[in-house]
Specification:
The radius of gyration is 31 Å and the shape is elongated. Among the domains are: about 25 residues, no CATH class; about 150 residues, Neutral Protease, domain 2; about 170 residues, no CATH class. Helix 8 crosses helix 10, helix 9 crosses helix 10 and helix 13 crosses helix 14. The protein contains 17 helices and 33 strands. With about 750 residues, it is an alpha+beta fold. InterPro entries: Peptidase_M1_aminopeptidases, Peptidase_M1_dom, Peptidase_M4/M1_CTD_sf. GO terms for molecular function: metalloaminopeptidase activity; peptide binding; zinc ion binding.
Length: about 750
C-alpha cells in the first residue's frame, strides 16, 4: 500500500511540475517576489505602516492673468515640511510648463513621419514649427529673507540647493517669481491654456501647472523627479493654498478652493444667487446668467479685480477665467456635508451645459462617495472648454459643445456627460487617493474609469458606456502583442494609451467585482483601500494587498495575469463526454472495446465527440477495495452510493486555455426540457495545469447544449469555441457577434 501511495504522489508531483514549468513562474505563484517587501511604512496588509510619513507643502501665491498679452505672471512663497526621517540637502520642484520650452525633450523624442498629404496643423505641432515661446521664465529663487538661493534647471525639474540640510521634522520657506506665455490649445494642444472665440474677440482661459510645484519625496523611491514628457501626469504633495488671482474686472473666475471675497468680485445679485444655491438640492441656481455673459462679451474692461481663494489639504490648484462664463450651482447632500456642484460655460455650451453639466457633477459625487469616501471638499466644478478632459482638485475642464444652432446629438450629450463624470471623479483618484501618476497611469485612470462606469450605470438609464463591460475590451486583448504592453508599464512607455491605462484596468476591476469576487466582497475591499489611502500616497502593492486583505480572496493570479502580462482570455470547450451508470457491476464489453471498471476516460483512438447523437457511454461503479481504507475500521455504504448515481447523467468536459489568461470557468447547461443552469468554477481549477482542465458535472436531466461565458463577462476573445455542439451558435452571442463582426 505504501508503494502505491508513493507512486501516486510521484506521478502527481511530476504532473504538477510539468504543468507549471511551461509557464514563467507559474500563473498561480504568489506575487511576493514581485512586490516590495513590507516595512514599517507600508504593511503587508496593504495599509499604511505604523511609521508611515509624507511631506507637506503650503503655498501662498499671487498670480496675474494678462488678457492682452495672454500671459501669466506670478510669485509664490512655499513652506515645505520635512516629515521624513531623512535630512535633505536639496529640494526638487516641478516646472511642467517647460514641456513647451524650445529645447524640450518632448519634441526631441517624439517620432514623426512625412506623409503624402499632411494637415499643416499636425506638421507644425509634430515638428515644432511655431513662434510660441513657451516654458517658465524664472525671475528669482530666494530664501525666507529674500536672499538668492542657488538652483539648477534640468528640463522640467528644478533643484534648489539649501544653505544647510533641512533636518527631519523641520520646515523651510522659499520664494519663486516667474512668468510664462499661455499656450493656444487649438494650435498647440495641452492640458491647460486658452481658447479664442473670433466672433466676439474673447478668450476662455483654463489655467493649470501655472506655478512651480514641489515634487514628491516619499519612502517608496525618494524624490519623484522623473522628467515630464507630456503623458505621465503628476506626482504631487498635499498642502494648503492661499491664492490671489488678478484678472480683468469683467471676468468670472472658477477655481480650486473657496472664494474668500465674494463682495469684492460679485454683484449683489450674484451674491444672493450664490447663497440661494447653497440651499438648492433639487436643481441648479444660475448665478451668472447668459444675458449677463453676453453683455460682458461686448466690452472689455481695463480695470482689474483680484479673486482670493483658499484650499486646504489639496495636492494641486487650477483655475479658469473668462468674461464669457455663465455660472450655475447646486447643493449636494454627502453625509453631513453639502458641497456645491458647479458649472461654468460660455453660451456656446448651451443649452446642453445648463441642462446636464451640474446634474452630472452631482451624480458623480454621490456615486463615488458610495464606493470610496464621502467627498470632503466644499465645491466640485465642471468648466466647459473645447476638446479637452482634464482634472484638478475641485475643478476640471471638459468638452461637449452643441452645434452653433444649439442642437446636439445623443452622442455629443453622452460623451459630454461621460467626460464630466470621469474628470469630476478624478477628485477621488488621484486628487484624494493620491497615487503617483508619473509612474502608474492605471492607478488613477483605470480605477477612476471603473467607478465612472458604475456611475453611468447607476445614475442613468441605458447609458452607452464605452469602457467597463468585458465584451468591449475583446478587440484590444486579442490584438497583435507587438503593440500591447502590460498594465504595469510606466506612463511614458505605454502603447495604446486609452486601452492600456483606462479600458483594460477598468474592465479588469469590473470582472473582478461581478465575476470573481462578487459585489459585496469587492465593494467592501475597494472602499477599504480608498479609506486607508485617502490623502496619502498609495503604490500598486498597497492596492493589490488591500483588496486581498479586506476580502480573504487570493487574487495574486488575477493581478499577475491582467496587470503583469499581455495574455488574453480564450477558454474553449475542447471535448465533452456523456456517461450514465451501467447496471451490472462487472467488467463488460463496451461497443467492442474493453473499458476498465469505473474508468470515466474517453475510449482510446476515438475522435472527439462533437454532439450527443451517439448517446451516453456507460461506466461502472464497483465495491470499494479494502486496501483503499488504510487504517480506518469503518466502511462506506457502497450500495447506497451506487443508488444515488442511478438515473444520473454525467458530463465530462475538458476545457482548454487557448489565450493564456487564467479565469473562472462559467458554464451554462441547457437541458432537454428547455431549462438551464449555470455552474461557476473558480479560476483555481487551472492551478495544476494552466493549459487544460477536466471537470465532471452530474445532473438528473439530459443536456442538449453547453455554453461557456454565456453573458460575455470574462472578455473571452473567441466565442465560437465556447459552445457544444459546435454547429450551434447560441443566440446569447448574437449581440457580441454583431459588435465584433464574427
Amino acid at each position: 500500500m505504501r508503494r502505491i501511495i508513493l507512486c501516486l504522489l510521484t506521478l502527481f508531483v511530476f504532473y504538477l511540475s510539468h504543468a507549471q514549468e511551461k509557464q514563467w513562474g507559474g500563473k498561480f505563484e504568489q506575487l511576493d517576489t514581485e512586490l516590495p517587501t513590507p516595512n514599517e511604512y507600508r504593511s503587508g496588509s496593504g495599509a499604511p505602516g505604523h511609521a508611515y510619513w509624507q511631506q507637506k507643502a503650503d503655498y501662498d501665491i499671487e498670480v496675474e492673468l494678462d488678457d492682452k498679452t495672454q500671459s501669466i505672471t506670478g510669485k509664490e512663497k512655499v513652506t515645505y515640511y520635512n516629515n521624513s526621517p531623512d535630512n535633505l540637502k536639496y529640494l526638487w520642484v516641478q516646472l511642467d510648463q517647460n514641456v513647451r520650452e524650445q529645447e524640450t525633450n518632448t519634441l526631441k523624442v517624439q517620432q514623426f513621419a512625412i506623409q503624402d498629404s499632411l494637415p499643416a496643423k499636425f506638421a507644425a505641432q509634430g515638428l515644432g514649427i511655431t513662434d510660441y515661446d513657451g516654458g517658465f521664465k524664472i525671475k528669482s529663487v530666494t530664501d525666507a529673507n529674500g536672499k538668492s538661493l542657488p538652483y539648477t534647471i534640468n528640463k522640467t525639474m528644478m533643484r534648489i540647493d539649501l544653505p544647510q540640510p533641512l533636518k527631519s521634522r523641520e520646515s523651510t520657506s522659499f520664494g519663486i517669481e516667474w512668468r510664462y506665455n499661455i499656450n493656444d490649445r487649438m494650435d498647440l494642444g495641452g492640458r491647460s491654456g486658452l481658447e479664442y472665440f473670433p466672433k466676439d474677440d474673447n478668450y476662455l482661459y483654463t489655467i493649470a501647472q501655472f506655478h512651480p510645484r514641489m515634487a514628491v519625496y516619499d519612502d517608496y523611491e525618494g524624490w519623484q523627479n522623473k522628467q515630464f514628457l507630456g503623458r505621465g501626469e503628476f506626482a504631487l504633495t498635499f498642502g494648503d493654498f492661499k491664492v490671489k488671482i488678478t484678472v480683468p474686472s469683467d471676468h468670472i473666475v472658477a477655481s480650486t478652493g473657496t472664494l474668500q471675497n465674494p463682495k469684492d468680485v460679485l454683484t449683489k445679485e450674484q451674491q444672493e444667487r450664490l447663497e440661494r444655491a447653497k440651499k438648492s438640492f433639487d436643481k441648479p441656481v444660475i448665478i451668472a446668467t447668459q444675458a449677463e455673459a453676453i453683455e460682458r462679451e461686448k466690452k472689455k474692461s481695463d480695470k482689474k479685480s483680484t479673486w482670493v481663494f483658499h484650499a486646504e489639504n489639496v495636492r494641486d490648484f487650477a483655475f479658469a477665467s473668462s468674461r464669457k462664463f455663465i455660472w450655475d450651482a447646486q447643493a449636494v447632500k454627502i453625509g453631513n456635508k453639502t458641497p456645491l456642484a458647479m458649472s461654468y460655460y460660455p453660451k456656446e455650451g448651451n443649452p446642453l451645459w445648463e441642462q446636464e453639466s451640474t446634474k452630472a457633477v452631482k451624480n458623480t459625487l454621490e456615486t463615488y462617495s458610495k464606493y470610496t469616501i464621502e467627498y470632503p471638499y466644499p465645491v466640485a466644478i465642471s468648466v466647459h472648454a473645447a476638446s479637452i478632459g482634464m482634472e484638478y482638485p475641485m475643478i476640471c475642464f471638459n468638452f461637449g459643445r452643441p452645434n452653433e444652432d444649439g442642437t446636439y446629438s445623443d452622442r455629443t450629450k453622452y460623451r459630454m456627460i461621460g467626460v464630466i463624470i470621469h474628470e469630476v471623479g478624478h477628485n477621488f483618484f488621484p486628487m484624494i487617493i493620491n497615487s503617483d501618476e508619473r509612474q502608474w497611469t492605471w492607478m488613477d485612470e483605470g480605477l477612476n474609469t471603473f467607478v465612472q462606469y458604475r456611475t453611468e450605470q447607476e445614475q442613468y438609464d441605458n447609458f452607452p458606456s464605452r469602457r467597463g463591460p468585458a465584451a468591449d475590451i475583446v478587440d484590444y486583448m486579442k490584438g497583435d502583442k507587438k503593440y500591447i504592453r502590460p498594465i504595469m508599464t510606466n506612463s511614458e512607455q505605454i502603447m495604446q494609451f486609452g486601452n492600456n491605462a483606462y479600458a483594460k484596468p477598468a474592465t479588469a476591476l469590473n470582472i473582478l467585482r461581478e465575476t470573481v469576487m462578487g459585489p459585496e466582497l469587492f465593494d467592501a475591499a475597494f472602499k477599504e483601500y480608498a479609506q486607508r489611502w485617502a490623502f496619502k500616497h498609495p503604490a500598486p502593492a498597497d492596492f493589490f494587498r488591500t483588496m486581498e486583505d479586506a476580502s480573504a480572496v487570493d487574487l495574486d493570479w488575477f493581478w499577475r495575469g491582467w496587470f503583469y502580462t499581455t495574455d488574453h482570455v480564450d477558454i474553449a470547450v475542447d471535448e465533452v463526454k456523456w456517461f450514465t451508470l451501467r447496471t451490472e457491476q462487472s467488467s463488460v464489453e463496451s461497443k467492442g472495446k474493453r473499458v476498465k471498471k469505473g474508468d470515466l476516460s474517453a475510449k482510446d483512438g476515438d475522435k472527439k465527440a462533437m454532439d450527443f447523437s451517439q448517446g451516453p457511454e456507460e461506466f461502472s461503479l464497483v465495491e470499494t477495495d479494502p486496501r483503499y481504507y488504510g487504517e480506518f475500521m469503518n466502511r462506506v455504504d457502497d450500495k447506497a452510493i451506487m443508488q444515488k448515481f442511478e438515473g444520473k447523467n454525467l458530463y465530462q468536459v475538458r476545457f482548454k486555455n487557448e489565450g493564456g489568461l487564467v479565469m473562472p470557468v462559467i458554464v451554462e447547461f441547457t437541458f432537454k426540457d428547455g431549462t438551464k443552469t449555470t455552474e461557476k468554477i473558480p479560476a483555481e481549477i487551472w492551478r495544476y495545469n494552466e493549459e487544460e482542465a477536466t471537470k465532471v458535472f452530474v445532473f438528473d436531466k439530459e443536456v442538449t447544449n453547453i455554453v461557456l461565458d454565456p453573458k460575455l463577462e470574462t472578455a473571452d476573445t473567441d466565442v465560437e469555441n465556447n459552445i457544444f455542439p459546435r454547429q450551434e451558435v447560441p443566440s446569447e452571442f448574437d449581440q457580441f457577434k454583431d459588435k465584433k463582426g464574427k
